Each structure stands twice: as structure tokens, then as C-alpha cells.
Amino acid sequence: MASTPALTNVVPNAATDPAIYDSHHQKFTSEGLPTSTEGWLERARQVSEILAADATARDIENKSPRAEVALLKSAGLLKVLGPKAYGGGGQTWDVAYKVIREVAKGDGSIGMLLGYHLLWSTTANLVGNNEQKDRFQKLIIENNYFVGGAVNVRDNDTKITDHGDYLTFDGFKNFNTGGVVSDLTVLEGVYSGTENHIFALVPTVQEGIQFAHNWNNVGLRLTESGSVKISEVKVPWADALGWDPKTRSPDPAILSIPYGSLILPTIQLVFSNFYLGIALGALAFASKYTTTTTRAWPFGGDNKNAATEEFYILERYGNFFAHLRAAEALADRVGQELANVYAKHSETRSVTARERGDLAEWVASVKVVTTDTALRVTAGVFEVTGSRATSRKVGLDRFWRDVRTHTLHDPVAYKNKELGEYLLLNKIPEPSWYT
To answer: Where are the membrane-spanning stretches (predicted)?
Structure first.
């Protein structure tokens, strides 16, 4: 393995104080979990509004988001996908995507954290056996745990070594979203001497997990997506998701490529939904600014009394609105497609390569559309708000910075290429870490 940076004398970021949301914690706790789809969406809207109120200030301060994660916990949003038997919301992924989108409207960083948590907290559902699936869902939902993940596959693979009753994970990851504020962390690596990968959930607070506290990027500043060093983290064989602890081998019935690899289109659609949420948040923010602050241009020859009478402003807003509506309709359609695949195959794990491939290209379509639209809208709103809207204290720039940062995660050009092959050659993509 290549040498890894030393993480000595690392100073954690200052953290936000959960007490700032005490009144909201009390309200959500007294109300309990929502009991309907609309109830979950309304709860997400309430959280989004709370976060939007001071999102600009929190973005500038760049503190570790302990208060924000505590708010997600008290609101119950971490449990939206959890089984009702363990105290979860019992909702499906199509609803979860809308919840992520709503939260991202108010704060893109927290929408992203919620999305990653919902993916990582359900990892055992996809790549674990039935006992592991139930055990980890019970653990996560009953304790209201927030789950992060150290699974950046572009880095050297984490090395997994057998020590008899347990395994150890060793490695370094440049990116590790939400880990600093998580209760559990998903680790992934390659079992020594093989090409086989193993996923495992471990407690975050332990000596073998050292965070660099070095996330200070242009956007998504409250996601704690910095690097982490993993040193001799012990995992019982019974916790190696989808593996038989007696034979030390993956269970082919559990880790089948078409079904187990659904984790990839699932997370890709998480990305698209928080891109979309951020863009919708930008449009709402800019609209309020334009109607209250932007001035009409006095040197056009056809002078107007108000910015909302300016042709170019009305035209741009109308165009942004139309494209976001179309993107939202597509995202909803594909969210339902994905939920249908899970509903049909979650018990038998019998999804075919063709079904998985068709779904992946629906997801790719959403990725292309939301990337293009979100970048255009979050940059374009400055044209209809005016030069004063570029002030740091206004905070309109955070929407573009957030979208620009994460849309570099994996090149959308490859999604366009995949879709071209799908259309022209009837070719479905081979499952990969990004498809």
C-alpha cells in the first residue's frame, strides 16, 4: 500500500451546539414520527425552513454540524426508511428522495448528509444476509444512529486481514462524508489475497479511526467530507456483510452482482435529488430577493417601475422554473422506478442484469439533467438578482458552490456516453462503483 499522510496533532473543527435547536427538538419529540407520506414531506419542509434561516452564517463559519445532525435526529428524518417494527418510518426510497430534496432546499450540506446516511444505513439490506439486515436495522433505528461512510474507491483499497475470529481494516481515504459527526461508519475494502470486497459497519469513535478534520472546500462546507486514516479496526467475521464466517467466503446468493450492486444507482439518485433540491432552494431564495430588493434597470429605454416588470427577469425566471419542474418530474418518475425494483426483488434478490441496467440508465438520465439544470440555475440567478446579490452576507453564492463541488464527484460526461450506447446500441452498462 502507498504511504499515507500522517494525521498527528490534528485539531478538530469547532462544532455547532445542538442546544440552539432545543425548541425544535422538543416540538418534534412531542409530535412523534409522521405517519403518512405527506407527513414525512411536511416534516422535511419544516427542517428545511429551520436550516435555511441561518444557512448563510453557518456556511461562513464552517463548523462541524453536530447541531444540524441532532436536528435530523429529533425530527426523525434519519429513520424515514427504517422498518416500523423497530421504530422507523417504513417509507420507500421514492419518498426518501423527496425528503432529501426538501432538506437540501434549505441547506445543501445537510441534504447531502441525510442522503448519504440513508444509503449507508441501509447497506446491510443490499449486501448483508437476513440476520445482518435485521440486526443492523434494529441497531440503527432503535438508537437513532447517524451513519457515515469511508468508501472512496478512487483511493487505494483498504486492506482487510484475517485474524481468526475477526478481521482488521487498514487504509486511508481522502474523502469520508459525515464521519466526524457519525455514530457508525461503513468501511469497505479488499480481503487480502483475493479480489473480493467486504463491507462492514463499525462504531466511529475508536482509536483506529482518525479524522484529519481538513474539510474546508468551496462548497458543501458542513458535510465533514475530509480524509480519514483507518488503522487495525477490528470487525468480527459475523459482521462482514454477506460473508459466511465459517467458510470465510462471500455468499453468492447474497452478493449477486445485479442485486447487490443496486447500491450504486441508489446513491447516484441520492446525488441528483440533492442537486435538484439545492437548485430549487436557489430559485426560491433568488425569487424572494428579486421581489424585495432587486431594482429595475433605469437605462434601457423602456424603463420599468419594478424589477418584476422587467422582461428579461420574467423570462429568465420562467425558463428556470420550467426546467426545474421538468427535472423534478423526471426525478420523481425514476425514484418510483427504483422503489418498484426494490419492492419486487428485495425478498428474492432476483433482479436481472437487464432490469438493473435499465434502471441505471434512468438514473443516469436524471444525473445528466439535474447536473446541467442545477449548475445553470444556481449560476444564472445572479443575472436576475443584480450585483448586490453577490455580497457574501446575502449568501446566494452558496447554492452554486454546493452544486459545483459535488457535481465533480464523477464526470457526467460518462453518463452521457452510457446513455448514447444505451440508445444506439441497446447496451446496458456493466455495474461499476459509479454506475
So the answer is: 262-286
Residue 180 and residue 224 in contact, taking contact as beta carbons nearer than 8 Å: yes
> What is the C-alpha end-to-end distance of the chain, expressed in Å?
26
- The CA-atom distances, in angstroms, between 136 and each of 72, 133, 159, 353 are 19, 6, 23, 27
The C-alpha atoms of residue 11 and residue 404 are separated, in whole angstroms, by 28
The CA distance from 160 to 195, in Å, is 11
Domains of the chain (ranges, CATH numbers) = 18-145 (1.10.540.10), 148-251 (2.40.110.10), 258-425 (1.20.140.10)
What pTM was computed for the model? 0.96
DSSP annotation of 287 = H
As given in the structure block, the three cell numbers for residue 158 are: 483498504
Under DSSP, the state recorded for 409 is S
Task: Name the residue type at position 76.
Answer: G
Beta bridge partners, 200, equal 187
Distance in angstroms (rounded) separating the CA atoms of residues 426 and 216: 43
* E-assigned strand segments in 328-399: none
Give the tens place of pLDDT for each residue, 208-255: 999 999 999 999 999 999 999 999 999 999 999 999 999 999 988 787
